[in-house]
Amino acid sequence: MGVIPVGAKEDIIPLKIISNIQIGIKYKLAPLIIGGLLALLSLGNIFNSGLGGLIFLAIYITIAGSGIRTTLTFDKSGTKQVISVPFFEAK
After folding, report:
1. At 3, is the secondary structure helix, strand, or coil?
2. Neighbours of 46 (CB within 10 A)
3. How far is CA 85 from the centre of its chain?
4. What is the per-residue pLDDT across 40-90, written as a single tens digit (0 to 9) for each?
5. How far lies 22's CA from each of 6, 69, 73, 76, 83, in Å?
């Protein structure tokens, strides 16, 4: 679901060749719905198991949050490049 990072890519781009920079937000419904439903279901576990319920609630909220993505779009030498990260990882 994109919650656990499984790789990395480093790309060095000179600022002189970058143009048409745009920042936006995209929503992925599957993680939002699944994480939201699981978070609601885990609220009942908070009263039964205390700390365990809070841990599961935090995990499910993180899954739901991964459905909100911040995107950076720019043109590099005529080629459109898109960088997309969950909103809580955007700096």
Report:
1. coil
2. 15
3. 5
4. 888 877 777 778 788 888 888 888 888 888 888 999 888 898 888 877 765
5. 26, 14, 5, 13, 11
